[in-house]
Amino acid sequence: MYPVVLFGQMRDPYYREMRKLFSSYVVHPPPLVVEVDQRSDEAIMVGLLKRLLGVQELPVLMLDGKSAGTWSQIQE
């Protein structure tokens, strides 16, 4: 299990900002980054993430198996 997981869409500027933020920290093991829009099951994956995590947008950050929130939630 990865303690830090980031789900996002490669072309999303907020997702790129979150990745940039993580690149400035040393995290062990490195975060698992899932680019949802690069998967063949993108529509299913997005719907599943929204339903299971209770979010309406991506990117979403997970810490120790729990949602830490989306970009806008983390910014607050």
Description:
This protein has three helices and four strands. It is of the alpha+beta class. Helix 1 links the parallel strand 1 (4-8) and strand 2. It is globular, with a radius of gyration of 12 Å.
Give the strand content: 15-25%
Main beta-sheet strand count, sense and barrel state = 4 strands, mixed
How many distinct beta strands? 4
Largest sheet, spatial ordering of strands: 2-1-3-4
Instruction: Count up the helices.
Output: 3
Please give the share of residues in helix: 25-40%
Shape: globular
Q: What is the C-alpha radius of gyration, as a whole number of Å? A: 12 Å
Low-pLDDT runs:
none
One letter per element, helices H and strands E, the order comes to EHEHEEH
- How far is the first residue's CA from the last residue's CA? 28 Å
User: How does the helix and strand content classify structurally?
Assistant: alpha+beta
Q: What value does the average pLDDT take?
A: 90
